[in-house]
Design a protein that fits this description.
63% of the residues lie in helices and 10% in strands. By secondary structure, it is of the alpha/beta class. It folds into two domains: 313 residues, ABC transporter transmembrane region fold (Up-down Bundle), CATH 1.20.1560.10; 218 residues, P-loop containing nucleotide triphosphate hydrolases (Rossmann fold), CATH 3.40.50.300. It has a six-stranded mixed beta sheet, sandwiched between helices.
Length: 554
């Protein structure tokens, strides 16, 4: 149960409220208590009828009242359980999402988004449903079973002993049958994650699929993954479905054993007809808890598989957001020093090999180099998306690991080569750079990025929705939005990764002219192959064979 212990530690403050838990247990106990009363009343009714008494009608009405009360309590129990389950699902997802947000970028490089989405959906649902529907109901179910045995013992200790002796055998048989449930549950969850990953990837690449006429091939691949999930789900549900009926059958078998041995006792008058009916009903009442416990065992295996997958994520070390030095407002000058920096992606040759460089505060540096030389890797190291294998980077004399991550990243504005945009409006994408910025400041940033003209021509201007990943915009328009976002942030350091790659020559010239003054006083690192952008630079450096070589100085 160590799989659950770690998760309970994480969620102990967010489990369903104590009042709800206490109320659920109280309702379950009341429902089961009424259930224990009904067999006794049925026995009394039988005795009344067999004795020829005409007072059976009040007894019949009392039994009907108990059944109605039990149904009403069951309704309230189910409503509260569902509410607690949904609350737990929501809080579990929030915990997981917060943890995912805090994980380093390196974690996501090795993960497929669809697999992560399946954790947020299927795994959280399995775990939360078990915790609320099974764990909370466990105590009342056990007490019901014990109560039924006690009532049997009050009528006949011998019968209770026979029934009690059958319970360990029932548990053993269910455990043997349930051995295959957990691996099959894990296979189901893994195949579900694989299907979600494939769906997410294919839907994100619809233009690629259509341009290469791969619709049938991708549909066939999805159908194969869906078939694998279907096979896994059949195996899992078949294994789980076997448990509850088997438990019920064993409980009924116990009843038949009791009746088999008690038949003669009734004939000789050792038991009254009413006592026999009560014992039979109490024995049948045991079938419910045994069946529920068998069902719980199957759900437990599913929940354990989900817990294992969730624990694998929660064991991942998050970024140290709350640690390190913070900067006073406007205190950062932007001087960057890189000393003997080395880095290699896992399983690949070293890409940075003892890189040394110093960029003065307020200096504009252009870095050129062949594709794959490590320019974007250097950007990721500056932002601490990844950590170097050795060497160090300093900002204003501070080693980057000694700085608060939030403080560091607030000082840097980034325009990536591969633009990341939200499925929202133009304004919502730009305002990410400055949530408290005014409309005038947003328009000024858009103008500086040479984006204002095309934005004003859009159907709703700044309120125009741009679609998933900005699909409704051209490549150049997306890049200008990303640039406006970075300029609105107005940080002391700007990293522009191919900032004019999507501009036409006139747009590139205009960008340079308009930003020469705006970039003054900022430390600017421009990664580019475009010759026109070189006019912005105080120095031009070339990244070659893992080191920086200066090719031009102002």
């Amino acid at each position: 149960m160590r799989s659950f212990s770690h998760l309970f530690t994480l969620f102990r403050d967010d489990l369903p409220g104590r009042r709800i838990v206490v109320l659920l247990i109280a309702l379950s106990l009341t429902e089961n208590g009424v259930g224990l009363l009904i067999p006794w009343l049925a026995g009394r009714l039988t005795q009344t009828l067999s004795g020829g008494s005409l007072t059976f009608r009040p007894m019949l009405a009392l039994i009907f009242f108990c059944l109605c009360l039990q149904s009403l309590i069951s309704y309230g129990n189910r409503v509260l359980s569902a509410r607690a389950a949904e609350t737990m699902v929501s809080k579990t997802r929030n915990h997981l999402y917060d943890h995912l947000q805090a994980l380093p970028l390196a974690y996501f490089i090795n993960q497929k988004p669809g697999a992560t989405l399946s954790l947020l959906s299927q795994d959280c649902m399995a775990l939360s449903a078990f915790l609320t529907n099974s764990v909370i109901a466990f105590v009342p179910i056990i007490l019901t079973a014990c109560g039924a045995l006690l009532c049997l013992a009050l009528i006949s200790p011998a019968v209770a002993a026979v029934v009690a002796a059958m319970l360990p055998l029932t548990a053993l048989i269910l455990k043997i049958l349930g051995r295959k449930t957990r691996p099959r549950a894990r296979a189901f969850l893994d195949n579900y994650a694989a299907l979600m990953s494939l769906a997410e990837e294919n839907l994100a690449n619809i233009p690629l699929i259509k341009s290469f006429c791969r619709e049938r091939a991708e549909s066939a691949e999805f159908a194969a993954a869906s078939e694998a999930l279907l096979r896994a789900s059949k195996g899992y549900y078949q294994a789980q479905a076997l448990l509850a009926p088997t438990g019920r059958l064993l409980a009924v078998a116990t009843l038949f054993v009791v009746l088999f041995f008690l038949g003669d006792a009734v004939a000789v008058g050792a038991f009254t007809a009413g006592e026999l009916v009560s014992m039979a009903l109490y024995a049948m009442l045991l079938a419910g808890p045994v069946s529920r416990l068998a069902d719980m065992y199957g759900s437990l295996q599913h929940a354990l598989s989900a817990a294992d997958r969730l624990n694998a994520v929660f064991r991942q070390q998050t970024e140290p957001y709350g640690q390190g030095i913070d900067f006073a407002p406007n205190a950062v000058r932007g001087a960057i020093s890189i000393e003997d920096l080395r880095f290699a992606w896992p399983g690949r040759p070293e890409i940075l090999r003892g890189l040394n460089c110093r960029i003065e505060a307020g200096e504009t540096v252009v870095i050129t180099g062949e594709n794959g030389a490590g320019k974007s890797t250097l950007t990721a190291l500056l932002l601490r998306f990844i950590e170097p294998d050795s060497g160090r980077i300093r900002l204003d004399g501070h080693d980057l690991p000694t700085l608060s991550l939030t403080a560091l990243r607030r000082q840097i504005g980034l325009v990536q080569q591969h633009i990341l945009l939200k499925n929202a409006s133009v304004a919502e994408n730009i305002i990410i750079g400055g949530p408290n910025a005014s409309e005038a400041q947003m328009r000024q940033a858009a103008r500086a990025a040479n984006a204002l003209e095309f934005i004003e021509k859009l159907p709703r201007g700044f309120d125009t929705a741009i679609g998933d990943k900005g699909i409704k915009l051209s490549g150049g328009q997306k890049q200008r939005l990303a640039l406006a976002r970075a300029l609105l942030k107005d940080p002391p350091i700007l990293i522009l990764d191919e900032p004019t790659a999507m501009f036409d020559p006139e747009g590139e010239r205009q960008f340079i002219e308009e930003n020469l003054e705006k970039l003054q006083g900022k430390t600017v690192i421009i990664i580019t192959h475009r010759p026109a952008a070189l006019s912005l630079a105080d120095r031009v450096l070339c990244l070659e064979n893992g080191i920086l070589l200066e090719t031009r100085q102002s």
